[in-house]
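step: validate -> pass
step: tokenize input -> pass
step: predict -> running
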Amino acid sequence: MTAVKISIATLAMTAAAALSAQAQDSFVLRFNHVLGPNEPFHQGFLAWADRVAERTGGQLQIEVYHSAQLGVEEDIIEQLRQGANVGQNTDAARLGNYVPGIAVVNGPYMVADMQEAFALADSPTMQGWIEALAEDHGIRVVCFDWVQGQRHFFTNRPVRTPEDLDGLRIRTPPAPIWQESIRALGATPVAMSFGDIYTGLQSRAVDGAELVYTNITAANLNEVLSHANETGHILLVNFQIVSEAWFDGLPAELQAALTEECRAAGQETSARIAGALEEAKAELIRRGMTIVEDVDIEAFRTAGERAYEVLGLTEARAQLLADMGR
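step: predict -> pass
step: emit ->
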């Protein structure tokens, strides 16, 4: 009888240990982004979550939160640096607050097109910056194959040259490369959260914004902006980041699933956005927005050089361009 009791107890302990191990092997990433639920990126993030869940048999779950439901971007980045199981869609401008060189990806006329953005993963210079983010700042870049498209100036008057931006207060995210880029291109940068742009324009706290076409349609910003000026001054490459400590605690197969499915979903979403941008532009024309296409791109390109000089990023830019064969 005693042996039977011991056997039953042993089985119970084994089962409990197995359940405990199973629980420990389940991971959840709470992923935050500032865009609305109608944005193409949100649908792309949901697809990323589905693919990871399917590939890992539910071991790794990604919960996607739109419209900054978990908090503003800068706060989420600080949380993940402390090891929290949160992730954030961000950009090179904000990452440049930690590793200055990487900010050049967000500079004026730096990345030419989507394929060039994807090829950045092969750059030794870029890989060095990414490792510095992980080792020195606790930020793990999962992937950066999410290209949101060319950003233009959206205002209430036509803009064809840098001089036309003189005196205009343009909303930007709060990062040095972004602010200096907009200043170099001729406007006065005003740091403001994405969700505050509509009311900021209504109250005339700002005179315009620099965004992609799909941002305008999704947030109905055409109601407070009349002109789309096709400067194409930044091709916005987005980075998906998580805690390095949290990432390091994942089994190798889950790390691979998170990273590889991030790249796949990002490239597919980027391709869809390329088509969606033209659709959004057509929709804005239907809504009455004036499209200014005869922009002096060379004048803007020349003006944009100033941003790299002011921030001391000329050498970092040259290194990355060399890696890219330009």
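step: describe -> The chain has one domain: 2-320.
step: cleanup -> pass
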